[in-house]
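Students often ask why we bother encoding 3D structure as a string. The short answer is that it lets us treat folding as translation between two languages. Here is a chain of 199 residues written in the first language.
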Amino acid sequence: MVPGQIEQHFSLPLPINQDVKSKLQNQVKCLAEKVGINHIMKLDDDAFKLYDKWYRKMKSIDLKTDDSLTKRIEWHVLKLSMVIALSDGKYTIDLETIRKGILIGKWQIGLRKRLKPIQGDNVWAQCENKIIKVLSSCKTPITKSKINTDTNIKNRQGIKVWENSMNNLLRDGDIIKVTKGKKQKYWLKQRELPQGWEV
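And here it is in the second language, the structure alphabet:
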């Protein structure tokens, strides 16, 4: 998934530029000759430890509704890591390479959270999911008023629905109040708390 808008400029696909096609074919051929047809890309010990830790943490996160946010992410991370390694002239996935792959994977999960349609069986569930979606995409804890501004629940659904939605999420432990000095804000419990903030 990538952010952006679809714009179709041509009713029929244009022919592929043969110079570009030949250049790409030669690059793939050179890479295949260097690596070898039967070469198996492996993670070194440090890379495997980091990948395994990230994988277990990702799978242990309660995504509340389904696993569509992380579906096949681990495979994308491994495939991208292989491409990155080969692009850097490496024939093994090392620690530096897997870090790059995981970073792209984290970005993709965040993007899926931000772009995922709001779902819910009733107005309460929809409002709670809106709040969770906002808290899934913010970089640091945010105030109650900021959550309301970004969701617009109070104006659209009324103050009762707004207050009950926040209270339900707090009671169920989906969101938490966090502090930094005298500041009190809100954060999604399943996310790692930024440095300097306390529950």
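Translate back mentally: The beta strands are 175-180, 183-188. Keep this in mind for the problem set.
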